[in-house]
């Protein structure tokens, strides 16, 4: 479950019935499926099956290091539709493209969210 809030107090979510991360030998690859829309849209779809990238370990499928370019680690593909580890900024701000805490399908690349949280629970 991913919960989000913008600076106007609007709240949305994206729910995934399946979320797992592979081990170190596979680059901590992300696996998500079973999307349910709570108004946010499915920004993680483009990150599915991607390895985790950091400043010093570029494992994304882009020609640039997305973690360096967008200032935070994540499961980047050709960079991002979701950037929950981006720079905390105040809402709409296009001064530096897409570096904020973003969920593209809801607010676009140039809007940094007030809050975002990812909640994961173990299989029963």
Automatic annotation (TrEMBL):
This is Fibrinogen C-terminal domain-containing protein. It comes from Oreochromis aureus (Israeli tilapia). One of its GO terms (biological process) is fibrinolysis. It is found in: Secreted. Keywords: Coiled coil, Disulfide bond, Glycoprotein, Secreted, Signal. One of its GO terms (cellular component) is fibrinogen complex. Residues 1-124 form the Fibrinogen C-terminal domain. Pfam families: Fibrinogen_C. GO terms for molecular function: extracellular matrix structural constituent; protein-macromolecule adaptor activity. Its main location: secreted.
């Amino acid at each position: 479950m991913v919960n989000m809030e913008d600076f106007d107090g609007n709240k949305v979510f994206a729910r995934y019935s399946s979320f797992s991360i592979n081990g170190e030998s596979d680059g901590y690859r992300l696996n998500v499926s079973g999307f349910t829309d709570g108004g946010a849209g499915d920004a993680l779809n483009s990150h599915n099956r991607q390895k985790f990238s950091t400043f010093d370990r570029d494992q994304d499928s882009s020609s640039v290091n997305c973690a360096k370019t967008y200032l935070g680690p994540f499961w980047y593909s050709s960079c991002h539709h979701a950037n929950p580890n981006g720079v905390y900024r105040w809402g709409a701000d296009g001064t530096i493209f897409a570096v904020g805490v973003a969920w593209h399908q809801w607010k676009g690349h140039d809007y940094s969210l007030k809050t975002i949280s990812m909640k994961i629970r173990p299989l029963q």
